[in-house]
Predict the structure.
Amino acid sequence: MWSSQDQAVFENLRLELRRGSVILAVLAALRTEQYGYTLRKRLEDGGMPVDEGTLYPLLRRLESQGLLESQWREEDKRKKRFYRLTQSGTEIFARLMTEWQSIGEAVAHLHTDPGESGHGGQ
Amino acid sequence: MAGNDLVERYIAAVKFWLPEKLREDIGAELADDIRSEIDDAEKSKGRPLTEDEIAEILKARGRPMTVAARYQPQRHLIGPELFPLYIFVLKIVAVVCLIPPVAAWFVWSFDRYALPVPDTIASPFNSFLMAFAVVTLVFALIEHKGIDITKKAEFNPKALRPVIDKNRIPRSDSIGEIIGAMIGVGFYLAGYFSQTTYHFPTGGSITVAPEWIAFWQIIIGLAVFDIALGAINLFKPYWSGPRVVARLLLNLAKAAAFCWLFQSHLVRAVDGVPAVAASQFQMVNDKFAEFALPFFGFVAAIIVAKALWRLMRTLKPRPAVA
């Protein structure tokens, strides 16, 4: 049974781990145009739920960094803001994915092969 | 409809906390998101949501001020890059603010009419508060204006200071102690400290208290321990608990011996000098006698503080040495 302190530490680390992954998930989902709510549903359905308090500020930040572009349009008699990746966003996303995969492989390698229990490589 | 009214009120409350240029944009997007969520819930339930159910959705989103805060950049007066430098400067300022009152106390302890001490001693708090405000303002301005003061020069790892092991006793200190003690012993053996009257080369003489001879016997006795401790420190140049205590006792003993010497009205007679000079000698002599004990207290406090600091350092693990 975990102590509450262990649980809190785990939660903090889990959030840190998720923070970077959320950006990738959002970029991945926005390769096709979507508005905020459908994006949120898509992320949730894809196993990466993101609350709106995190998602919308993140979308704004990514837009200000030039990775996304947005457009207000009317759909179902309601004005909605649609987001999608820009050209630069697409390129950066591809590079980030490569980076993410190599990080994943490195961690998996370190996990399966703990290496020698040497001191300073002796 | 009451539910719609609730959403509108919620959006208006969030907008209140947003910067004006973002209000409409964020408000519209948030409103759409909330209404989409309500639509979704109504579709799955097959009926319109009640006011309570809508209130639950809004409650889950959080307080309007919290929601608005998430859209704003993280604010800080002094950013993380400047913060360590800011704290460093504040520490220096705190020390500088302490110097005048300590000096004032010192002067006051010799002459109680020289300074209005209560004001002077009370002032470090005020002066630190003032300095704190000025330093904070300057750093906040640097942060706000985006002035880059930390990255102007290219970072050169080779220019980093070597790691200093504060637990290590510099060999030069040990050698200095040994030489100093040996010189003292040499002078003693030569008979310089075995008399109470000294003649000036220009004529005249000074006669000191008989305690002078006993004082030097004590000091020379302590010097022998000084030499022994210095020799040990020279070959094992790291402070250990017993050696810290030995150094503490030696220093306290020396300070106490000096205190005792000065309390004895060291200068007993000055002959062959003008009367004015002789009376000045006497006045200084009396002052030394009067303030020997408080001065010893002050010095002893420093000695003990230094020993405690050394003791604490000995408890910390020593850095790895290549």
